[in-house]
Amino acid sequence: ERGHLQPARQQMQGQRGDRILWLDEKRAVEQYGLTALAESISCLRSLAHVLGSSYNQYRASQAFAAPAALSPQPMAMATSYPAHGHGYALHKDNMWNQDQSRYVNSRRFTTILYANSKAWNAAKDGGVLRIYPGTEGASSLSQDLQARVVSVEPFGGRLVIFDSCLWHEVQPALRNRRALTMWIDDDLRKTGNGQ
What are phi and psi of 55, to 5 degrees? Predict the structure, then answer.
């Protein structure tokens, strides 16, 4: 693990403590011999198709004119947080840039598949994902918004899907914590027109 995963780049010192590896199915098998990882990446990739129909029904109910085309990003991100109290500070995977009247990137959904023990104990192991619903348009977190937190324990095999524009964070892990993340893009956001 340590020979392949690299420390994640940080915008600010102390923002995140994970080690990461970007890969697709081919690289997982050919370079690392990890067939199960390749199958997990394929599973996450297929979510773009599964979510597409429901997402467009939602868009139609909200009177959005154009249907969206969801597509998975080409690479997944394998992460490992060492058991030394490392986490990932509060952040968004995408946000609206008011000055440019467009999204910062094309990410629509964040999908995470955990590869930890099913016996994860948040009180003892830490590493909880904290998601703040209703914060898509918030530039910061008020106390009211913080009170809405949803805490997700990273049990092995658990799949989490959430809006990439939500504030979220990873609490410090006291046990090795592993996950596979793939972002699903909204192709309208690539052109700057998606809402």
Answer: -65, -40
Q: How many CB atoms lie within 10 A of CB 145?
A: 15
| Predicted pLDDT of residue 1 | 45
> At residue 165, does pLDDT exceed 90?
yes
Joined together, the tokens standing for residue 185 give 């893009």
Q: What's the rounded Cα separation, in Å, for the pair 170 and 129?
A: 5
For residue 160, the SS3 value is: strand
Question: Cα-flanking dihedrals φ and ψ of residue 48, to 5°?
Answer: -60, -45
With a CB cutoff of 8 Å and minimum separation 6, the contacts of 122 are 128, 151, 153
Residue type, 149: V
Per residue in 55-105, pLDDT tens? Answer: 888 888 888 777 888 999 999 999 999 888 999 999 999 998 888 888 899
CB atoms within 10 A of CB 170: 26
Instruction: Judge if pTM exceeds 0.85.
Output: yes
E strand segments, 42-194 = 70-72, 76-81, 86-91, 96-97, 102-103, 107-114, 129-132, 150-152, 159-163, 167-173, 177-186
